[in-house]
Amino acid sequence: MSYIMVDVESDGPIPGDYSMICFGAVVVEPGLSRTFYGQLRPISERYIPEALAVSGFTREQTLQFPEPAEVMQSFAEWLRGISKDRLIFIADNNGFDWGFINWYFHHFTGANPFGFSSTNLGSLYKGMVKDTFQSFKHLRRTKHTHHPVDDAIGNAEALLTMKDEMGLKIRW
């Protein structure tokens, strides 16, 4: 079993109508050295300039990115190299991140290597501390930059802290 922390940047709120611009993933394990980064050409003419601006890219830059099918196939291959066992998708905002990754996998490769479920890091932390008003974000060491690999690493650091210092049981 391998936990894969994922972060997505997009140019709008939903997949299909809008595009996933880039995403990052990291295997949650000591060292956090196994990462994946993908940039994807937009799939739609629609975009929200303010949403796109968060990624740090211009529309013109994104139009030069690789085809989504290529990127998603590369991501699937990378994931196959991580583990033959179950892959656990985990994200800070899994409703958003999972939605894009799941849609893109099904649309461009025909299947999602993560299966049909995901885990929300924030909800996990709230349950651990038994307070729905608490946030895990103080456990990040890597600055939250909106580069998806940085953000995935920061979130993975928080999960490792929950494991190592707070007693969360995680099977690798």
Automatic annotation (TrEMBL):
Question: What GO molecular functions are on record for this protein?
Answer: 3'-5' exonuclease activity; nucleic acid binding
Task: Tell me the SUPFAM superfamilies matching this sequence.
Answer: Ribonuclease H-like
Q: Which residue intervals define the domain Exonuclease in the entry? A: 5-156
Picking any one GO biological process from the record gives: DNA metabolic process
Q: Which UniProt keywords apply?
A: Exonuclease, Hydrolase, Nuclease
Keyword Hydrolase listed? The answer is: yes
InterPro entries, per the entry? Ribonucl_H, RNaseH-like_sf, RNaseH_sf
Q: What Gene3D superfamilies does the record point to?
A: Ribonuclease H-like superfamily/Ribonuclease H
The answer to whether keyword Phosphoprotein applies is: no
Q: What name is this protein filed under?
A: DNA polymerase III epsilon subunit-like protein
Q: What is the lineage of its organism?
A: Bacteria, Pseudomonadati, Verrucomicrobiota, Verrucomicrobiia, Verrucomicrobiales
